[in-house]
Write a structure and sequence with these properties.
single chain; alpha/beta; Rossmann fold; UDP-galactose 4-epimerase, domain 1; two-stranded parallel sheet; globular
């Protein structure tokens, strides 16, 4: 198939492009890092468009106007091109759309109360996709990622690369508050696996959480890193940030129903692969 990947040079996008090529798809990669401008639209005819290009959370928080340009207006350009060439859109959304959920595990039908600009733009992009589906019968799949991690992740705002780098460099690990807050960590290869399956099995018109379905506290994560590395790091605590979620775990029942499987890499296994420089 002819496939476009926006955000193709990013942490997830790069892995996705490589896997699609391995599966013998014709892939065009678009990325802000290449100097591509998502506000200028696209060219080419595609069977599917993976839309990963996004202004990430830290930058979105400091520059909301640019976040709206890239994350919302950019999505409109993707949708317009998909409508023009009859492409299905596979959109990578985020658990940030839920904000601070009332209960956990969080199902896809839970209300959206984002507490960050990033989450708000993801929620807006989802609404646009659903509207295009209703108005123009444009097929879509929306994946709401939890905390994706893996080798090659450069963001120092994400806890796993930050903690791994600090441990490797003999520096203290900085946590927010007590460290009892929990996250749902999912390994990058598992994420890419489902992204490719959604294309090749022609999944359409569904919204799916993609996570491990397991809650892991920040303190437990540090314990696992110490177990994997054999290094017990010093821990420094700082005040909790405004948008900090206390706990989060995705309900992945709908993912299981759609694909008859769920992500299988345990957090300890994933950490071992990162530390060993594998994958």
């Amino acid at each position: 198939m002819n496939v476009l990947v926006t955000g193709g040079a990013g942490f997830i996008g790069k892995r996705l492009v490589n896997e699609l090529v391995r599966h013998r798809h014709n892939v065009a990669s678009f990325d802000l890092q290449y100097g591509d401008d998502i506000l200028k639209g696209f060219s080419g005819t595609f069977d599917a468009i993976y839309h990963l290009a996004v202004l990430p959370r830290p930058l979105a928080q400091t520059d909301p106007r640019k976040a709206i340009d890239v994350n919302v207006k950019g999505t409109v350009n993707v949708l317009e091109h998909a409508r023009k060439c009859g492409a299905k859109v596979i959109f990578t959304s985020a658990s940030s759309v839920y904000g601070i959920p009332a209960r956990s595990p969080v199902e896809e039908d839970a209300p959206h109360f984002p507490v960050s600009v990033y989450g708000a733009t993801k929620s807006a992009a989802e609404s646009l996709i659903l509207t295009y589906n209703r108005l123009y019968s444009m097929d879509y799949v929306i994946f709401r990622f939890t905390n994706v991690y893996g080798r090659g992740q450069k963001s120092t705002r994400e806890v796993i690369p930050a903690f791994i780098n600090a441990t490797k460099n003999g520096e203290p690990i900085t946590i927010m508050g007590s460290g009892k807050q929990s996250r749902d960590f999912v390994y990058i290869n598992d994420v890419v696996h489902f992204l490719v399956r959604a294309l090749e099995e022609d999944k359409k018109n569904m919204i799916l959480n993609i996570g491990s379905g397991k809650e892991t506290s920040i303190n437990k994560l540090i314990e696992l890193i110490a177990t994997v590395t054999g290094i017990t790091p010093e821990i420094v605590s700082r005040p909790v940030e405004l948008e900090e979620r206390w706990g989060f775990c995705a309900d992945i029942s709908r993912l299981r129903k759609a694909f008859s499987e769920v992500p299988e890499t345990t957090l300890e296994e994933g950490l071992k692969k990162i530390w060993a420089g594998m994958d």
